[in-house]
UniProtKB/TrEMBL annotation:
This is protein S-acyltransferase. It comes from Glonium stellatum. Its EC number is 2.3.1.225. It comes from the Eukaryota. It is an enzyme of class 2 (transferase).
Length: 201
């Protein structure tokens, strides 16, 4: 029997008590490298547990699992099973789980997050960029393709200088990313930035 099950069976156990930095049991379990799937599922289905409690850095269990995704991507998948997990909560610096995964080129997590219909693929990060804009600038073709096809990301949302993902990819000479964006019939090919320049100019 799982030790988690034994503890949760006692009414005196409070599963939402945090440590000095604000992390709760579900927060620590979300980054566990060992696959205690039974324990994780028990925590996820216990009606007394707040699955969105953030620590002092405003990191939720899902954001922690995303941060540590190279070691425990399966925890991201388990957390997304629960309808009580809010995938759009950001930490104090701005990123939600999807932009965090995008920024670090975690393709597997980028595939997992959009499968949850509640994930907003167009949230602006701490520097005023959408996930699609950021990866278009970095020439991460696979992530661009995922965001366009699976996330249905808004391909026309611009940065603070009004530069769209297409304009950014053109400016940086990222030919394959330009090809992917031009093939998307939602893209405005003639959008203007703050200087009045289109992608072609």
């Amino acid at each position: 029997m799982s030790v988690v099950r034994l503890l949760l069976a006692h009414n005196g156990v409070n599963p939402n008590i945090a440590d000095k930095i604000g992390r709760t049991p579900i927060s620590f379990t979300s980054v566990a490298k060992y696959r205690d799937i039974e324990g994780m599922l028990l925590l996820l289905t216990d009606g007394n547990i707040d699955l969105n409690l953030a620590d002092k850095d405003s990191r939720t269990p899902l954001l922690w699992a995303t941060v540590k995704a190279r070691d425990c991507d399966f925890m991201v998948e388990l957390l997304l099973v629960s309808n009580n997990v809010d995938p759009n909560l950001a930490n104090k610096d701005g990123p939600t789980p999807l932009p965090w995964a995008v920024q670090r080129n975690y393709a597997l997590v980028v595939k997992l997050l959009p499968a949850n219909a509640r994930v907003n693929p167009n949230l602006i990060d701490e520097i005023g960029q959408t996930p699609l804009l950021r990866v278009a600038m970095k020439n991460w073709e696979a992530i661009v393709e995922l965001l366009l096809a699976k996330c249905k990301a808004n391909s026309n949302l611009a940065s603070g200088n009004c530069r769209t993902p297409l304009a950014s990819a053109v400016c940086n000479g990222h030919e394959k990313v330009v090809e992917l964006l031009v093939a998307d019939n939602r893209v405005n090919l003639n959008s203007k930035d703050n200087a009045g320049r289109t992608p072609l100019s």
